[in-house]
Amino acid sequence: MISCQNEPDPSRKPARRSRNVLRSITGIMEIIVSPWAIPVGLQLAADAEPSPGENPWDQHNAIASRFDTRVRFWGKVVDQKGAPLQGVEIVATVTTLRMIKTENGYREYEVLKATSDADGTFIFDGSEGMYLDIEALTKEGYVLPSAYQFGMSCKVGAKFQYRYSSMGGGESVFIPTPASPEVFHLWKINKPEPLTIGGDGSGLSGPELKVGAPPEPSTTISMMITSVGTHKDPQWEVTVSALEPDGGFVMAEASDIFMFEAPAAGYSHSIRFKYGPVGADQGAGDPGASLRFFARTHNGRWHTACEYAFFAPDQNGTVLTQVRSWRNPNGSRNLEHDGAHPLPPPHLSQ
After folding, report:
1. Per residue in 238-273, pLDDT tens?
2. Fewer Cβ in 10 A, N or C end of the chain?
3. Distance CA 152, CA 135 (A)
4. Dist CA 341 CA 123 (whole Å)
């Protein structure tokens, strides 16, 4: 988050502000102010000179408050079996274009805290702003799904963000409903085993694929991508194949948000996955479509949970990918892990 640590200099104009763009920095979201989408009212306030003795943020805040709305939020936290969890500590931030005075200066967000009740529910109310972000959900002995443990902001583990106000009127806004609280899941750690984990909050850069090119082999798998759509309706198909005779894959169920246990059966020698340009806008730099699957290799002894993000092809037909993986190489299908307290790297079985 942006935070002005010192009192503003009355001789200087307030900083120019605009719509918020988010990025993940050490597990917490920082607001980056971009200079290309400044509301007209705020531009005028930024250009206006404050009167003698006037707080330089007063005029700015008077105009910025027009973009705020009341922020009310109802949530519920459950475990992997759907049972409500009491005592979960939730931290959220409400983002605004106003400059809020604090003990340490000024900032454009308010920090909210709550604890879940016996039925797992919690409420945030009484703030005004444009966005609400769930920054953390913590309870001793429980963990978030793998992709959320690093505060990711891409599709492979989306961040919890809710828009309450549309600056231009074109964005959809979140409508809170007390009868249908937003549900968050935590997993009760049983007996985690040492895993080889690839990728952090932003994921590792995966293979660069070329549309229509031969399969791109790695150590135990190969990937290829082909165009299966039309010029007006583009679509691409990814094929993931095993290089070992005994290797195989199985798609993760959409309901399996944790992927903490590899299936015992159902593996195929190859899997196919189709996606289109929606959610894979290479020009905007947004992460693409997500492919989640389990892999079994090395005579069935290595079990891996994989999450790939595929971007739309660029003008040369090159497809960039991001990958995160969690591998247990010692015969167990257990993929439980806590990103905040990782175990030592595992001994690799042959």
Report:
1. 999 999 988 999 999 988 989 999 999 999 999 999
2. C
3. 11
4. 29
The two three-digit tokens of residue 205, written as one number: 């850069």
What is the rounded CA–CA span in Å between residue 323 and residue 155? 11
* Cα gap 31→25, rounded to integer Å: 10
Is residue 307 classed as helix, strand or coil in its secondary structure? strand
Residue with the two structure tokens 């953390």: 136
Bridge partners of residue 78, in order along the sequence: 84, 185
d(CA 142, CA 109) in angstroms, rounded, equals 28
HSE value, Cβ hemisphere, 13 Å, CA-based, for 333: 10
CB 113 within 8 A of CB 93: no
| DSSP letter, residue 64 | H
pLDDT band at residue 172, thresholds of 50, 70 and 90?
Answer: confident
Please give the single-letter amino acid code of residue 206. Answer: G
Question: In this model, does residue 294 exceed pLDDT 90?
Answer: yes
Which residues of 9-166 form beta strands (DSSP E)? 20-25, 28-33, 69-78, 89-102, 105-115, 121-129, 131-138, 142-143, 160-163
d(CA 286, CA 100): 31
- The span from the CA of 328 to the CA of 301, in Å, is 8
Residues in Cβ contact with 57 at an 8 Å cutoff, skipping those fewer than 6 apart: 8, 14, 98, 99, 106
pTM here is 0.72
pLDDT digits (tens, 9 = 90+) for 56-95: 677 777 877 888 889 999 999 999 999 999 999 999 999 8
Q: Specify whether the CB–CB gap between 225 and 176 falls below 8 A.
A: no
CB 35 within 8 A of CB 19: no
Higher per-residue confidence, 233 vs 116: 116
Cα angle vertex 80, ends 79, 85, to 5°?
5
Strand partners, 88: none
SS3 content of the chain, % helix, strand, coil (to 5): 5, 40, 55
